[in-house]
Design a protein that fits this description.
By secondary structure, the chain is of the alpha+beta class. The protein contains seven helices and six strands, in the order αββαααββαααββ. Helices cover 36% and strands 15% of the residues.
């Protein structure tokens, strides 16, 4: 019951705090004086680079926090950086996580909600250049033939991966 009371008050109940925040009075998140500037710069880097992996490659140069790209994505998707506290999330991390309970405007935000939405659209954009050129590669289907066995080159497109896989079956 005490956790229900704390959740209703918008308290952060997890031991690990998102990068850029520390625990303050009454379990509220407050900006970390040492890392707040770094967290703001991470968001600016995400905006300028446009990919999680690109930013993680740059972080060791200037930031004390060096996460993997998937952990940076989980941090970006955490509602805490927008000033909200979420409870009872679905398993996993990243874009697919949903929160059953959300308390809005509980602490200072690193990024506003509308800015976050715009940046999220940029970061969700497909980056696989090969997937865009599938039609050009598709023109080779049936034209290339193995000199030893005579099999023709086929192209299988798996839409759920957006990748092309070459197969040498007749």
């Amino acid at each position: 019951k005490q956790f229900e009371v704390y959740r209703a008050q918008g308290r952060h109940l997890r031991r690990r705090k998102p990068f850029g925040y520390v625990g303050g009075a009454d379990h509220k998140l407050v900006p970390d004086p040492d890392n707040w500037g770094h967290a703001l710069r991470v968001i600016e880097e995400l905006r300028s680079v446009g990919s999680f992996s690109g930013v993680t490659n740059r972080l060791p140069d200037w930031c004390p926090w060096t996460p993997a790209a998937s952990n940076l994505q989980a941090w970006f998707c955490n509602p805490a950086i927008r000033g909200h506290i979420g409870h009872h999330k679905t398993p996993g991390k990243g874009w697919g996580v949903t929160w059953a309970e959300m308390h809005y405007g509980q602490h200072p935000a690193l990024i506003g909600e509308s800015e976050w939405q715009e940046l999220a659209e940029l970061l969700k954009r497909r980056r696989n250049n090969f997937a865009k050129s599938v039609h050009a590669v598709h023109g080779l289907t049936g034209l290339l033939q193995c000199s030893s066995c005579g099999h023709r080159l086929r192209l299988k497109i798996r839409s759920w991966l957006s990748a092309a896989v070459f197969d040498t079956q007749p």
